[in-house]
Amino acid sequence: MSCALTKSQFPVFTIYAQKSCLKLRPCERAWCIDRVQGYKLNGHVKRTAQVVSRRDCIEMCLGENEFTCR
User: Fold this and answer.
1) I want to staple 61 with a disulfide (CB 3.0 to 4.6 A). Which of 9, 11, 49, 69 is the partner?
2) Over residues 7-26, mean pLDDT
């Protein structure tokens, strides 16, 4: 197969989008949250919360007033 892509021709960044219905206000852009697997935000934590699901975590973050959830 001479027309097949070689490994170096694959895009560096691949986007996977997943539609989610959230209970909060709609976002101003096409997606409301960015998630990068294998990474976490480090910084000054004022409080933490335990949630049951990723969806609950996203809804809590988007409903936050002390910082901008992105």
Assistant:
1) 69
2) 69
Residue 11 lies in a domain: no
In 1-70, alpha helices (H): 54-62
pTM, whole model, 2 decimals? 0.56
Largest interatomic CA distance in the chain: 56
Compute the distance between CA of residue 2 and CA of residue 53 in angstroms, rounded to an integer. Answer: 45
Flag whether 59 is in a domain.
yes
pLDDT at 4: 62
Six-digit token pair at 6?
């070689």
Q: Is residue 69 part of a domain?
A: yes
Q: What is the dihedral of CA 58, 64, 68, 70, to 10 degrees?
A: 0
**What is the tally of structural domains in the chain?**
1
